[in-house]
Design goal:
By secondary structure, the protein is α/β, with parallel strands linked by helices. It has 8 helices and 10 strands. It folds into 2 domains: about 140 residues, 3-Layer(aba) Sandwich (Rossmann fold), CATH 3.40.50; about 120 residues, HUPs (Rossmann fold, 3-Layer(aba) Sandwich). Helix 3 runs parallel beside helix 4 and helix 7 crosses helix 8.
Length: about 270
Amino acid sequence: MSGVILAVVEYPESAHQTLAAARRLADLMGSARINVLAVRVMPESTIMPTEEILTSYQAHQIRSREEDRVAALHTTFEAWAATARAAAVAAEWVDVEGPADTLVGEWGRRSDFLVLNCPAWRDNVPDRLKLQAALFDTDRPVLMVPPGPVVPFGECVTIAWRDDKRTIRSVLAALRLLSQAREVHVLAGVRAGLPAPGLPEILAEHGIAATLHVLAVGAGVFGETLLAKAHDLGTDLLVMGAYTHSPWRQLVLGGVTRHMLAHADLPVLMRH
C-alpha cells in the first residue's frame, strides 16, 4: 500500500531541501505519494488587533507579494517533480490561501509523514503556528529538515530513547524507514546513581539490531550532548519524541525538543 507524505514548502531558498527530503523519505517507504503544500498568507492575518483596519491597497500589496513567492515555489516544484515522476513517484501541488496552522493540520492528518524545514531558518508567528500544528495537532511523525544539502539519510539512524509513549510512537514510525539502515544506535540518558538501561524491547521485538550508548544527564545541556554523540556516530537521521510543557495551544517546548529544533544540522524525525 502506498503511503502519503505532506511536504510544506515556505520559502523559495529552502524549498529544494524540503522536496529532496520528501523524495528520500518516499524512497525509504518504498512507495509514496507526495503532496506539496504552499500556504498563501491571508492579508487579514498580517494586521494586529491594535492596528488600523486593513485597506484594499494593503491587501492587494500582500496578495501580490504572496503571488510572487508562491510562483517561485511552484517553479522549484515543477523542476523537482519532473525528476520525481520519472522515477514513478506521484507528486501533487497544492496552493491555497488560509490559516497556516489549520491547513497544515487538515492536510497533515491525512498523511503518513510531514516534512518541514527546521524553524531556525525563520522566526515568525506563521512558521511557529505551522510547526505547532505539525507536531502537536496532526498526530503524525514530522521530519524536520535542516539547512544545507540533503544527504541520503536513513543509513545510520540514531534513536534518542526515553521509555515513554512519545518516543515509542516515534520509533514505530521510524520502523518503516529502516530497510536501508546499516547501523541503528540508541542514546539513553541516565542520571548519576541510577542503573543503566538495556536496549528497548520494542527494537528486539521488531527484529532491529541496535547498539546502546548511555549518556550522563546533568552535566550541561542534554540536547547538546545528544547532538554531539549523534555526530560522533555518523548519524544521518535522528529519531525522538517531541515534548511540550504546555497543555494550551501555544508552543512551549521541552528543553531537548527546543534545542534540536534550534540547533540540529541533520534530519530529525519527531512525533508527539
